[in-house]
Structures are given as structure tokens and as C-alpha cells.
Design brief:
Shape: globular
Bound molecules: protoporphyrin IX containing FE
Order of helices and strands: HHEEHEHHEHHHHHEEHHHEEEEHHEEEE
Structural class: alpha+beta
Distance between the termini: 62 Å
Helix content: 40-55%
Strand content: 5-15%
CATH class: Mainly Alpha
Number of helices: 15
Largest sheet: 5 strands, mixed
CATH architecture: Orthogonal Bundle
CATH superfamily: Cytochrome P450
Number of strands: 14
Oligomer: single chain
């Protein structure tokens, strides 16, 4: 009797969205370059290949899409140069108190409760509030903006209905009376000697909300899940708050928010196991890279004392995430506020976090007992 050959592994298998790690292992071991016809991309899974691909100029953002990454090279560099000072250094330091205050208010609201879901009651709110603060939009509008982050925005970019009408008066005011916030930076910026149009400003804002809100929300949920799963390490972070950065970096390595970054090959590119042909769509499996045993000893283990985490969760090279420091500030403030307000926080009885998602991934519920 002839045996039917097993179909090649694929990201499109429904089991993969539930648990991608067995597939990632197979890919790294036996198919470091695989044309996944069902998913519609060539898969790269080893740390070294993913790292090289993310910074390779022959691999560009695939159409369709209107994100930062899709901008033509000169405009991309110009827009990065505009936005990045407003998300680091003095500008970031000016946001710190507001983000910490929001984290504190959100955490304090939970103190009288027996149980809570940290995703819907904390993680879904704090990152959106942080981006709202960075843009200089009114704090009272965080709920509206959070809704747009959840429903209308994707990593493809593009502005959801309603955002342009909401932004119009703020943009007009910033053009007339600029302040020190990111929206003012965009409203007063000049590209090719001309100010950015209202449409361009709205597109950039939509991009920042999409890139920042959802990714940080998911990464914060993964951080909390990792620490609640490892009470001894949680206790250490509680006792030595300076360890929060290491806990964050290790969580981003083990459970990144963005599991897959897509690219399009402009030319043939040699990688482990073969050559990506020109024109191919490439899936850089960041989630797999973080668990590559050739790069990380015992990679499935969560260990905040891991030396040189070297994770790729924010990308590398000229497209590296512009929100690294804002995300770190948000996660650090969130963790600190929760640990302070809820000193006895543990998983609710019988609860296990259940991460979901293929392109972006995290638990969509974190049920905790608070007393
Ligand atoms: C933990 C939270 C975050 C994660 C995991 C994350 C992850 C990423 C990743 C993987 C990329 C793509 C890199 C590439 O294409 O090579 C990216 C790009 C980007 N991110 Fe983030 N991000 C986070 C938070 C933020 C925040 C808070 C902002 C700003 C408010 C932001 C703004 C951007 C922008 C503007 C880009 C495009 C950069 C470019 O193409 O030049 N991100 N991010």
C-alpha cells in the first residue's frame, strides 16, 4: 500500500495559531527556508536568518500598506528623523509622570476587587493612554482612541473612520500654536520644504496608534503572564524594581507581541537552506527566532537573569521600532503600579493564560485573584 506523503508544514494549519512553537521547532531543524504555499510566504525561522533579513535592504515592506515601513526610502528617513526625537530623551522624560499617574489610577481602581482581568481592565488601556499622552491629545479622549486602536487600526496603517474628524481641530490648533508634543512636531514638520498635509498627519497618527497601542498592550499582557507564571521571579522584581527592565526584555524574547514581520524580496537573497527568489513574500518569524536554541540556551525557559537577551521583538536596522523607549516606560510604569497596588496578586483559581494570534500574539485574558 502506498502511503500518502504528509503535507509540508504550514503557518495556515489551524493548530499553529493555538501553539506555533512545535512548527517553529520543525522549521528551524529541518526547513530553515520553506515556501509555505498555503500561507503565501517563504518562512525564515532561525535567529541568524531572521536578524539578517530584518535589516537587509533587499527585503522591503510588502504591499498593500501605508505604514512608516512602506514610505519611499528618502521620505522614510525624513519621517523617522521627525518622529524619533519626540519619543525619546527629554520628550520622553516629560511623559513619564503622566504615564505613571495613569498606571497608578488604573491599578488603584482594582484594589477593592477580589478578581480582575488584567487584559481588559489594564493592558487594553495603559498603552493607548501613553500614546495619547505622547501625541498631546486630551486624556479624556483615551477611551475613543482606545476603540480605534482595537477596531480600526492594523499594522497595514491607514486611518479609521472618525479619526480624521476627531484630529482636525487639534491639528488646526497645533498649526497655529505649536506645543512640545508629538502632534505639534508633525503639524510643524516640513517635508521637501512644505508642511505635511492634514491627511499625512492623520496617517502618521494612525500609524503611531496602531503600532504603539496594540503591540504594547500585547507585550504587557505577555510580561504579566510570564511573571505570574514564575512567582519566585515576580517576588524578585517586587523586591528589586530595577529588575523590571530585564523581566521585560526576557518576556519580549520568549513571547514577543509581533510574531511575524512580512517583507517582499526585491532581489534573490541567500539564507540558510537556499535562496529566496526575487518577488517572494517573506515571513520573518520573530517568535521562532526568540526560541532558537543555537542563540539562546534552554530557550523555552523564562529567566530574567539571562545574559545578553538580544531579542528581535522590535526589529533591527533602519526599520527598528521607534517606540522602544515609550513601550519600555509604559510596561515599567504598569508593572510597578500593579505590584505596588496589588501586593498579593496571583492567578485566579484554575486559570491558565491562553495566548492567541498568529501575526501578533498574547493572552487575551489574564484572570487574577487580588487578595
Ligand atoms: C512592545 C511594544 C512594541 C512592539 C513589540 C513593537 C514592535 C515593532 C516591530 C516588530 C516593528 C517592525 C520592525 C521592522 O519592520 O523591521 C515596529 C515598527 C514600528 N513601531 Fe513598534 N512596537 C512596539 C511599540 C511601539 C510604540 C509604542 C510606538 C510609537 C508610539 C511604535 C512605533 C513604531 C513605528 C513608527 C514603526 C515603524 C518603523 C519604521 O518602519 O521605520 N511601536 N514595531
Amino acid at each position: 500500500m502506498r502511503t500518502v506523503p504528509a503535507p509540508p508544514p504550514s503557518l495556515a494549519d489551524p493548530a499553529v495559531a493555538r501553539d506555533p512553537y512545535p512548527l517553529y521547532r520543525t522549521l528551524r531543524d529541518t526547513h530553515p527556508l520553506l515556501q509555505d504555499e498555503r500561507f503565501g510566504a517563504w518562512l525564515l525561522s532561525r535567529y541568524a536568518d531572521v536578524r539578517a533579513a530584518l535589516s537587509d535592504p533587499r527585503l522591503v515592506a510588502p504591499p498593500p500598506g501605508r505604514t512608516f515601513a512602506h514610505l519611499e526610502e528618502a521620505t522614510h528617513a525624513e519621517h523617522r528623523a521627525l518622529v524619533s526625537p519626540a519619543l525619546q530623551g527629554r520628550a520622553l522624560a516629560a511623559l513619564k509622570a503622566g504615564v505613571e499617574r495613569t498606571a497608578y489610577v488604573l491599578a488603584r481602581r482594582l484594589t477593592r476587587r477580589q478578581e480582575a482581568d488584567l487584559v481588559t481592565e489594564f493592558c487594553d488601556w495603559l498603552p493607548a493612554a501613553a500614546v495619547v499622552a505622547a501625541l498631546g491629545l486630551p486624556y479624556e479622549d483615551t477611551a475613543r482612541v482606545t476603540d480605534w486602536c482595537r477596531t480600526g487600526l492594523t499594522h497595514l496603517g491607514g486611518a479609521p473612520t472618525g479619526l480624521d474628524a476627531f484630529l482636525r481641530p487639534h491639528v488646526a490648533r497645533r498649526r497655529a500654536h505649536p506645543r512640545g508634543d508629538l502632534l505639534s512636531v508633525l503639524c510643524t514638520a516640513r517635508a521637501d520644504g512644505r508642511p505635511l498635509s492634514d491627511e499625512a498627519v492623520t496617517g502618521l497618527v494612525a500609524n503611531l496608534l496602531g503600532a504603539g497601542g496594540e503591540a504594547t498592550d500585547r507585550a504587557l499582557a505577555a510580561l504579566l503572564a510570564n511573571l505570574l507564571d514564575h512567582p519566585a521571579q515576580l517576588a524578585l522584581v517586587r523586591a528589586r524594581p530595577a529588575l523590571a527592565d530585564a523581566a521585560w526584555a526576557e518576556s519580549l524574547r520568549r513571547d514577543p507581541a509581533v510574531h511575524i514581520v512580512l517583507r517582499r524580496a526585491l532581489a534573490p537573497v541567500a539564507v540558510s537552506g537556499g535562496t529566496i527568489p526575487a518577488g517572494a513574500t517573506v515571513a520573518c518569524l520573530v517568535g521562532s527566532a526568540g526560541r532558537d536554541p543555537d542563540r539562546f540556551a534552554d530557550p523555552d525557559r523564562y529567566d530574567l537573569f539571562r545574559a545578553a537577551p538580544g531579542q528581535l521583538a522590535f526589529g533591527v536596522g533602519r526599520h527598528r521600532c521607534l517606540g522602544v523607549q515609550l513601550a519600555r516606560l509604559t510596561a515599567g510604569s504598569g508593572l510597578h503600579a500593579l505590584l505596588e497596588a496589588l501586593p498579593r496578586m496571583t492567578w485566579a483559581p484554575g486559570f491558565r493564560p491562553d495566548p492567541e494570534g498568529l501575526l501578533t500574539r498574547s493572552p487575551r485574558s489574564l484572570l487574577v485573584r487580588l487578595h
